[in-house]
Amino acid sequence: MVADVIVTGYAVRFPLVGMVLAFAHYVAGLERLGHRVFYLEESGWEQACYDPTTGDYGDDPTYGMGVMRRVLDHLGAPSTPIWYFDRKTVTWFGTGRNEVLGAFDGCDLLLNLGGVCQLDEFERCRRTALVDMDPGFTQAGRFGAPHLRSYDRLFTYGTNIGNPDCLIPHLEGLQWTPTVPPVIVDHWSPLTTGVNPLLDGGFTTVANLDAYGTIEVDGRTYGQKAPELDRLGDLAGRFRAAGNKSTYLELALAGGDAAAAERLKADGWVIVDAQETSLLLDRYERHITSSVGEFSVAKQAYVGLRTGWVSDRSVCYLASGRPVVVQDTGFDRDRFPGPDGGLLTWRTGDDALGQLLDVMNDYQRHQAAAQQWASDVFSHRVVLPELLSVGLADH
After folding, report:
1. Scanning 329, 363, 370, 380, which has its CA 20 to 30 A from the CA of 180?
2. 304-331 pLDDT, tens per residue?
3. What is the dihedral of CA 383, 385, 389, 390, to 10 degrees?
4. pTM for the complete prediction?
5. Which residues constitute the domain of residue 355?
6. Which helix (H) or strand (E) holds 66?
7. Is 186 in a helix, a strand, or coil?
8. How far apart are CA 179 and CA 386, in angstroms?
9. Cα gap 29→78, rounded to integer Å
């Protein structure tokens, strides 16, 4: 079945490439599978559009629409139109109201990624689905909460939801289907041809220390990545001392302040600017493909609530054959089984050091396993047909 799908997200308003790819992999993946896809975004609030080249917020979506267009073209999805609605001026960019209404009326499935877009016209679609990209935060009321009951299907990156150790807040009457971020493997894997990261590379990641604040669940406060980084202490220095001295841990850092960056440097981290890393598509791709792998903490809420969250950035590393060593959030390997190696998780600094050294000591095995994880579990050819099957059930 060929479906007409409208995808909404948060790419135009915050057009750093790492963020854009989280949504573009859905759009491009669906187009590659032969579906008719429209990408739609609405302002949500005034001054919503960020221009990273100036650091300013405004109402003009032109820059963000341009970035999304280039990314979709690069991923092999040149046919998907990009539409944007400004609530303040009641203006459509990239289209007109009549064309949009026609698309809504012909839409088999509206796929709302992250729950940060909402228009009354969504009700015109035959089926609607939300993909919860921030498990715990969504159920605690941070994203999309007033509209959760309006969707026909609810998906979540909380792969551990429903298991006894998962502490994601229970919302009576709502049923969540676990899913994972999709990646277009045959885009990422060729980018690593001729690249040997072990010659001079590091384990890298992008980290926003404070992002969108804290949530409270059952009387306990859960935050972002800063407290989880603090728990690691001098791991970066210990890793360099124990392993290959030319291999390091690097953070592309956002949020926090200069003092936080200096503390991390003192602990042995290499610190670079997250915005510069994610400003241009080819620069972001090189950041991933020239890395030995990814090493990362997770948001405190993902860890403490045992959500089972997995990162849309990590799947790009895996597709590039770059092993991923990430903090344990309770990822459900029974629901999403993969090979031994390639995707490793840790709970303590000592665990993390052991996992990093294991990757370095048997790198080719972990590379092959990383690619298998990408192909067997996270590929758009695996994730998206299942999502459409559930989303369009009974349609």
Report:
1. 363
2. 999 999 999 999 999 999 999 999 999 9
3. 20
4. 0.96
5. 185-377
6. helix 62-74
7. helix
8. 9
9. 12
